[in-house]
Write a structure and sequence with these properties.
mainly beta; seven-stranded antiparallel β-sheet; Immunoglobulin-like; four-stranded antiparallel β-sheet; 15% helix; Membrane-bound Lytic Murein Transglycosylase D, Chain A; 20 strands; globular
């Protein structure tokens, strides 16, 4: 699609320059941590299960402004024509450069409501591949509220690209998700200063370190066994000297999986690590956007829909 007008062309050009800078820094290795707690295994991004099929297009950036203006960037085979689709409709196209990178600035802002963004690549060899990743976007009807952007991929934890998290009192540390993988292993992730060392404590004991990548995203999959029970979760960001410069603390409860399944069969949800209203709604109703159904049925227990606490039992009515 073509951008209309000189101003639109200038804006698009500036956005491409900024995102191009992101791609340049994206390839650099993250700074190693200054210190590792005794007895703690160092961990960063989870290792890839297998090499990514480069003929399948992927997302790197999805940025949605309050008015719905959207920039999408990602990767594909060099020379591939990439279509960006919103609820199945093509809303932008781009051709991947010789490094396989592409950027689309949508001509029209996304309308308020729920949108599923996907990709389709028409590759130089004639093959057509759809993205495995899906980005769910909710553009608020209220102009003063930011958009919610969540990326999902089979067998991986969903990741919030834009939206609420639990921020530290100082600095840029944010705990975004506490989730489970397909084997029930804990995944903790968030944002911090690029290259920062993040140390995670459960019940006052360190369970692993992670390093924020060049985009500021960090993820830790603790390798130690965590028995069912209630714990205090603490996330520290360390400086080069190992001093804590930012901290997030909150309670969480790891439940016994069988008990959680039994509660779900009764139509109720026992809040566990990784449960937020979005994830519960996605699992029960097929879409995270139905979180308002759960909120309305349990608002006597929920002071803030972005903060639900372990041990609460929620009614989950029919959508």
């Amino acid at each position: 699609m073509r951008n209309n007008g000189l101003i639109a062309g200038i804006v698009a050009g500036l956005l491409i320059v900024v995102i191009g800078g992101y791609f340049f820094f994206f390839h650099k290795a993250a700074t190693p941590p200054a210190e590792t707690a005794p007895g703690v295994e160092q961990a960063g991004q989870a290792p890839a299960e297998q090499a990514q099929d480069k003929s399948i297009p992927t997302f790197d950036i999805v940025r949605v402004e309050r008015d719905g203006s959207t920039v999408v960037a990602g990767r594909a085979l060099p020379g591939a024509k990439v279509e960006v689709k919103a609820n199945g409709e093509v809303v932008g196209t781009a051709t991947a450069d010789d490094r396989g990178e592409w950027v689309v600035v949508l001509d029209k802002p996304l309308k308020p409501g729920n949108i599923q963004i996907t990709l389709t690549a028409q590759n130089p060899d004639g093959s057509v591949k759809d993205s495995v990743q899906t980005v769910a976007v909710n553009v608020a009807t209220q102009k003063d509220k930011p958009a919610l952007v969540v990326i999902s991929e089979p067998r991986k934890a969903s990741r919030v690209l834009q939206g609420p998290g639990v921020p530290s009192d100082a600095g840029n540390l944010v705990l975004e998700t506490v989730d489970y993988d397909q084997n029930g292993n804990l995944i903790i992730s968030g944002k911090a200063d690029p290259g920062a060392t993040i140390r995670v404590y459960i019940a006052g004991k360190p369970v692993g370190d992670a390093v924020a990548d060049t985009a500021g995203h960090w993820e830790l999959r603790p390798t130690v066994n965590i028995e069912p029970g209630q714990y205090a979760l603490r996330i520290d960001q360390l400086d080069a000297a190992g001093k804590v410069v930012a901290r997030v603390e909150l309670p969480f409860e790891r439940g016994e999986p069988g008990a959680v399944i039994a509660a779900l069969k009764k139509g109720k949800v026992v809040i566990q690590p990784g449960n937020n209203l979005w994830n519960i709604a996605r699992d029960l109703y097929g879409t995270g956007f139905s979180y308002t159904v759960i909120y309305e049925a349990n608002k006597d227990q929920i002071r803030d829909p972005n903060l639900i606490y372990p041990g609460q039992v929620f009614t989950t009515p029919k959508n």
